[in-house]
Amino acid sequence: MSADSTSRPLRPMHRISLPEPGPPRLGTLATGTPVWLVTRYAEVRQVLMDPRFNRSSLHAAGAPPLLVVPNLLDSPDGLLNQDGAAHQVLRGTVQRAFTPRAIARWRPWVASVVEALLDDLAERNRPADIIEGFTRPLPVAVICRLMGLEHVDRERIRHWADHALSGGAHTAEEVGLAMREFGEFAGRLVAERRTSPGDDLVSGLVAAGDGLGIDERRLVTLVCGLVVAGHETTMTALGNAVVYLLTDGQAAWPGLAKDAEAAATAAEQLLRTIPLSEGRVLPGLIRRAVEDTEVGGVMIPAGSVVAVQTNSAGRDPEVFPTGEPDLFAPLTSPSIAFGAGPHHCLGAWLARLELELALHRLAARFPGLRAEFTPETIAWREGQMTRSPLRLPVSW
To answer: Is the dihedral of CA 232, 236, 241, 242 positive or negative?
Structure first.
């Protein structure tokens, strides 16, 4: 159901209830498949880092169904669904481009994208939609520049991304058609970069993949995955952060403007406390036990599907302070907003950089930014794996 057609009010993401941290407990996926839900910080980290819980067995013969409508994360050729040596080889083709040192070199041009969008936003009639003018185009512009896609229709990329991570907004046929188009686009892109390489991530992936003997199908799937993952989560997190900062978190606005370091700390706290989904089991955080394994005093049998709730774990009272977050206090334990272990999000440092610069420069340029919406009037982007504002009118 679209945000425009629904009559039921939805709470902002920072106000929704999440499963309480506790011992692993059985639940059920939308497909009817039983799933062990893991919610406590230490046990979430255990599942994500223990090789006895893997991804590839989720796609083995006879594996139980995970998704009602398949999406990009369901591809057995994808980086997310590889384990062991195969995963290390595929991940190694791209990992060097996303190290903290590599990301630091991108800081000037990410900052230039932020400033250009803020210049455009300042010229808009007020009230202006900050989603259309800033939080949505920023991550798309960054990933397009990184991958050498500046001249590609960005609305087409958004269309593919919406279908790639559909959570019920589209039929299986619609998703299948969009994914075929997306795959054909990525296939042509790989072929072009092979014959005419440039100074972009896709060219580097093709060169590295060819040198390691990675087949075409996996390269194409990897390119599709990076295009989608490279902006979807950041777009969602940034939009939901703006909702919080212009409503319940207004007191933090001046502090964000002071310096980028304060904004970076705030971004970590926002990632910890504002979920991307309404308690939905996100496909990327599902594993399968390959042998009987004890987690939090509960024996999880081999073959069981296990899902971790990183948002609940980020609010575990045994690890983090309870109540409203102090946005400018460093985390007391390592973040799990981007997962942990061998499948830790490749783009974590890029997302952090974008969120830091976006929040800092937005607050500095618009110290009087104010909401022309209330929590009850927000139009929401629904039917995806995540939920974020569809529109947010603001003035200054």
So the answer is: positive
Instruction: Tell me the pairing of strands 53-54 and 286-289.
Output: antiparallel
What are the start-end ranges of the H helices in the chain? 41-49, 84-95, 100-122, 130, 137-146, 154-164, 172-195, 201-212, 216-229, 232-245, 253-258, 260-273, 310-313, 348-365
CA distance 393 to 396: 11
pLDDT in tens, 248-287: 999 999 999 999 999 999 999 999 999 998 867 788 899 9
Confidence (pLDDT) at 238: 97
Beta bridge partners of 370: 395
Q: Which two tokens stand for residue 29?
A: 């996926």
Dihedrals phi, psi of 153, to nearest 5 degrees: -60, 110
Would you say the C-alpha torsion 174, 384, 121, 125 has a positive or negative sign? Answer: positive
The pair of structure tokens assigned to 317 is 């009272």
Q: Which residue ranges of the chain lie beneath pLDDT 50?
A: 1-6
- 165 and 386 in contact (C-beta within 8 Å)? yes
The pair of three-digit structure tokens given for residue 199, joined into one six-digit string? 């100074």
Q: Which residue has the tokens 């839900």?
A: 37
Measure the CA–CA gap between 324 and 363, rounded to whole angstroms.
Answer: 20
Task: Collect all residues with Cβ–Cβ distance below 8 Å to 385 and sequence separation of at least 6.
Answer: 71, 165, 166, 167, 276, 277, 280, 282, 283
Q: What is the pLDDT of residues 111-143, one digit of tens each?
A: 999 999 999 999 999 999 999 999 999 999 999
Asked if residue 69 lies in contact with residue 162, where contact means CB atoms within 8 angstroms, the answer is no
Using CA atoms, how far apart are residues 202 and 193, in angstroms rounded to an integer?
Answer: 7
DSSP state of 384: B
Q: Give me the sheet containing 393-395, strands edge to edge.
A: 128-129, 393-395, 370-371
Residue 197 and residue 212 in contact, taking contact as beta carbons nearer than 8 Å? no
Structure tokens, 336 = 């799990």
Q: How many CB atoms lie within 10 A of CB 356?
A: 23
Distance CA 179, CA 380 (A): 24
The predicted pLDDT at position 8 comes to 61
